[in-house]
Amino acid sequence: MDAPEMTLQLTVDCAEPQRLVAFWTEALRYVPEPPPEGHASWNAYWRAVGVPEEELGDGAGALPESIVDPRGTGPRVWFQRVPEPKTVKNRLHLDLKIGGGRTVPLAVRRERVDAEVARLTALGASVLYTMDEPDGMDHYAVVLQDPEGNEFCVV
User: What pLDDT does 105 receive?
Assistant: First the structure.
């Protein structure tokens, strides 16, 4: 039996989906996901497919709560509103790989990573710490957090 088609979606629990849509759209160079054809909003779509009112919540789907890669290669990211705040370290995080890998000289990777970190902090990210491995490890990365405290790395 053939397996059904599977796609990958990353789901980020958050308090303010629109705040993270704005940040991650710019950070990943994605676009807000438009509602399905024939629907003015995601809220209208969800109502049309029968999502119960109590599941929609106040303002859900009025604006996009998901982002997509305009090239169609990266996964969809959905920002799901949850009532509880983030309290512990992520068990899964994103690595934004911009340095070019170990075939690129460390000085060049460091310059690329630092430029991307500057761009992301201007968008609202915060730097947590830098991983600059001594003793010939030839590794450089910066750990940041998004506006709601979700950790991610720029490598």
Answer: 93
Work out the angle at residue 116's Cα, subtended by the Cα atoms of residues 75 and 138, and round it to the nearest 5 degrees: 95
* C-alpha distances out from residue 128 to 86, 141, 145, 152, Å: 16, 11, 7, 10
Does the pTM exceed 0.70? yes
Write the burial class of residue 12 (CB in 10 Å: 0-12 exposed, 13-18 middle, 19+ buried).
Answer: buried
Q: Which tokens go with 135?
A: 């003793």
Q: Is 144 helix (H, G, I), strand (E, B) or coil?
A: strand
Question: Distance between CA atoms of 67 and 22, rounded to whole angstroms?
Answer: 9
- CA dist 144 and 114 (Å) reads 12
Q: At 135, is the pLDDT very low, low, confident or very high (cuts 50, 70, 90)? A: low
d(CA 92, CA 28): 17
Residues in the chain: 155
Rounded-to-integer distance, Cα 77 and Cα 33, Å: 9
CA distance 35 to 43: 9
| pLDDT in the model for residue 136 | 58
Mean per-residue pLDDT for 53-75? 86
